[in-house]
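Subject: for your reference before the review

Hello V.,

The reviewers asked for a structural picture of the protein, and I figured it would be easier to keep everything in one thread rather than splitting it across files. Below is the amino acid sequence we used in the manuscript, unchanged from the supplementary table.
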Amino acid sequence: MSMPIVGLVLYPQFSLFHVAVPYMVFNTLPDNRLFDLRIVSSGGGPQQAERSMTIQPDGGLELLEMANIVVVPGWRELDDTPEPDLAEALVRAHARGAHVVGLCYGAYALAYAGLLDGKKAATHWMAEKDFSARFPKVKLDTNALYVEEDRLITSAGTGAGLDCCLYIVREYYGAQMANKIARVMVIPPHREGGQAQFIERPVAVSTQDAHINRLLDYLREHLAEPHTIDELAARTAMSRRTFTRHFNKATSMTVVEWLVNERLQHSLELLETTSLSVERIAEMVGFQTATSFRQHFRQRYQVSPISWRKTFGKIES
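And here is what came back from the structure prediction:
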């Protein structure tokens, strides 16, 4: 096949890292070029990065008319809509069959152009609420490292752009070539799990219900013990029905959901700061079996407890 053309779009105050990711992946093998990489900007003029570095592009948006892959590497401000000429160029590229890619907040540029309406998409987890509010027609996947639907590819934040670009290499040249590029860049060719393992999920320390607050303090001190609804209702001097209503109103969770959430949160601390076995941690945080713990953990974070420890655990000196 002919060499695919990649159009890498610059914009005012672009992120150097987000531009460097596709530049490196699509330009890593100079002795065996796989892609014809062209840097473009609206009007073809130089663009300045966030910290004053300036890049001179190869040309204007007209270069996108020939591109097989169009990449928007991040985005400057979430409130900023793309200039009409850029939005139109993205739409035209997709209409003629090109892959259109939004890395990290680059998904905003695609969404503002209307390309993602009714489609699955990903972006950085910190923008989850903002993105969903702005673009209710987009099916946002809040866990995926990258998503493709109908030749529209979007990725989660920062490092996930590497995963996304390697995915594109696999699509065009197969896993062996993607693995070769990954080895040259000294990065994994494929990462297990999704964004869930990186999202901060603080648990509310207290609610506005004093009775429930006292109960939550008690439960946190007795996580390892089994608890029943009837026992907890009695402890708060409520009927079972009244208790479940109050608990849900105060925490927006059922008792079971709250306990699982709190136990998983505590398990993260133990995985990251101790060398205790998974079986011992499961026991300490209140799961009946290590199997149950592993199942709940993988369902929440998309990786195993051992994988989490390898990624976030303390490094022994």
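For the response letter, the relevant points are probably these. The chain has two domains: 5-196, 210-312. The longest helix spans residues 255-273.

Happy to draft the paragraph if you're swamped.

O.
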